Amino acid sequence: MAKRLIPSFNRILVEKIIPPSKTNSGILLPEKTSKLNSGKVVAVGPGARDRDGKIIPVNLKEGDTVLLPEYGGTQVKLGEKEYHLYRDDDILGTLHD
């Protein structure tokens, strides 16, 4: 469903990663556990244009795991899922395993 929305310019469509509420062994985790505000990039716009009209490509690609700011972005609901649109400049960094 998210493939229908292609972000404009330097915007990125992100699906937030929700931390698990219990472990594999069934132990329930409290809601106050420190959670990392992260998400997975679902779609990427073509990029912004500079003064000469040339496209400046976005640094991220689909499938990247990114660190998101605590506030900001535009909430978008497509079907049953909830996504967020951010500008390329708003993304704090990428997360690697």
Mean pLDDT: 85
End-to-end Cα distance: 27 Å
Q: Give the oligomer, counting copies of the same chain as homo and different chains as hetero.
A: single chain
Name the helicity range. Answer: under 10%
Gyration radius over CA = 15 Å
User: Which sequence of strands runs across the widest sheet?
Assistant: 6-7-1-2-5-8
* Major β-sheet annotation: 6 strands, antiparallel
DSSP strand content: 35-45%
> Uncertain segments of ≥5 residues (pLDDT<50)?
none
Q: Say how many strands there are.
A: 8
**Helix/strand-derived class?**
mainly beta
Helical segment count: 0
Run of helices and strands: EEEEEEEE
Molecular shape:
elongated
List the helices and strands and how they pair.
Elements: E1 11-16, E2 38-44, E3 48-49, E4 55-56, E5 65-67, E6 74-78, E7 81-87, E8 93-95
Antiparallel strand pairs: 1-2, 1-7, 2-5, 3-4, 5-8, 6-7
Function: Seems to function only as a co-chaperone, along with cpn60, and in certain cases is essential for the discharge of biologically active proteins from cpn60.
GO molecular function: ATP binding; metal ion binding; protein folding chaperone; protein-folding chaperone binding; unfolded protein binding
Organism: Hibiscus trionum (Flower of an hour)
